Amino acid sequence: MPFPKAVRLVEVGPRDGLQNEPEPIDTATKLELIERLGAAGIRHIEAASFVSSRWVPQMADHCEVMTGLTRHPGATYSALTPNLKGLEAGLECGVEEVAVFGAASEAFSQKNINCSIAESLQRFEPVLERAKAVNVRVRGYVSCVLGCPYEGEIAPAKVAEVSKALYEMGCFEVSLGDTIGTGTPFKAKRLIEAVSRDIPMDKLAAHFHDTYGQALANLYAVLEEGIAVIDSSVAGLGGCPYAKGASGNVASEDVVYMLDGLGIETGIDLNKLADTGTWITQAIGRPNRSKVGVALAAK
Ligand SMILES: CC(C)(COP(=O)([O-])OP(=O)([O-])OC[C@H]1O[C@@H](n2cnc3c(N)ncnc32)[C@H](O)[C@@H]1OP(=O)([O-])[O-])[C@@H](O)C(=O)NCCC(=O)NCCSC(=O)C[C@@](C)(O)CC(=O)[O-]
């Protein structure tokens, strides 16, 4: 299949990137991060998470973030909502798009959201119904699509089954999470082949972590399959609190640099994005995990 002409980047840095930070990050820093990402041309930003603050304290200021952010024209600011309680809280704070998150691994589902895969799908149904009633789009995540920290290998058929359930429930897009970054390119291709039998390619997204340094190679492989939506995190921030050792998402700067080189449009200003990566890593005292970001900063 030819490469897509354009890719939509979903920036998950403010949520996936920051949710695991041990020290509290003030709301003003999160808001400035979101503003800078918007100014760099990113038009889809996952800004917060309406989960239990006992489970994920870093996301406790979700409402202040959603109500305080500066909206760029044409941009969408979304939030995670694992259940109806999360959705109702999000709606009160003006969320315009939400995401439910399940897993292709039973053990990960239990650790992450405290229920089985089947129970999670039951929890998501009322979220989808209520969101539809108020015209809020729902994205669906599937974690552990290329490996699980507790169960090891995960069969593509299992990922396809959970993804199909989310899509049939009404999720407008299903994002496939290589939560612990163990995937490799052929495996990533086989995964997309399996999942795209039931879901149109343009309703799928790749959400790859870079723990083993494979994320860009895996993205190249799935671009060849026709994937045109990529999740990434500025400066490669992040890691999942329920996947020990998981490092951040693939760095947004690295993805944009690769896509620019392939002649694939993103609408994103790489220099502004790289400046944002330099700024946020200095602001929170983290190393910049974007090779492109580091290289551009050194120029
Ligand atoms: C899902 C729950 C809430 C279930 O948690 P639970 O304990 O099973 O839920 P519960 O219904 O039994 O409620 C227990 C308590 O939590 C409260 N509660 C219940 N729901 C909410 C809510 N929405 N917001 C705030 N509070 C909530 C509820 O009110 C109650 O409070 P209490 O009466 O004990 O004071 C919990 O397990 C949780 O918050 N988990 C956190 C999961 C998480 O955020 N994980 C990281 C994000 S996923 C990820 O990073 C992967 C992804 C998406 O990036 C893709 C990839 O890379 O793979």
UniProtKB/TrEMBL annotation:
<keyword id="KW-0456">Lyase</keyword>
<comment type="pathway">
    <text>Metabolic intermediate metabolism; (S)-3-hydroxy-3-methylglutaryl-CoA degradation; acetoacetate from (S)-3-hydroxy-3-methylglutaryl-CoA: step 1/1.</text>
</comment>
<dbReference type="GO" id="GO:0016829">
    <property type="term" value="F:lyase activity"/>
</dbReference>
<feature type="domain" description="Pyruvate carboxyltransferase">
    <location>
        <begin position="7"/>
        <end position="274"/>
    </location>
</feature>
<protein>
    <recommendedName>
        <fullName>hydroxymethylglutaryl-CoA lyase</fullName>
        <ecNumber>4.1.3.4</ecNumber>
    </recommendedName>
</protein>
<dbReference type="InterPro" id="IPR043594">
    <property type="entry name" value="HMGL"/>
</dbReference>
<dbReference type="Pfam" id="PF00682">
    <property type="entry name" value="HMGL-like"/>
</dbReference>
<comment type="similarity">
    <text>Belongs to the HMG-CoA lyase family.</text>
</comment>
<keyword id="KW-0479">Metal-binding</keyword>
<dbReference type="InterPro" id="IPR013785">
    <property type="entry name" value="Aldolase_TIM"/>
</dbReference>
<dbReference type="InterPro" id="IPR000891">
    <property type="entry name" value="PYR_CT"/>
</dbReference>
<dbReference type="InterPro" id="IPR000138">
    <property type="entry name" value="HMG_CoA_lyase_AS"/>
</dbReference>
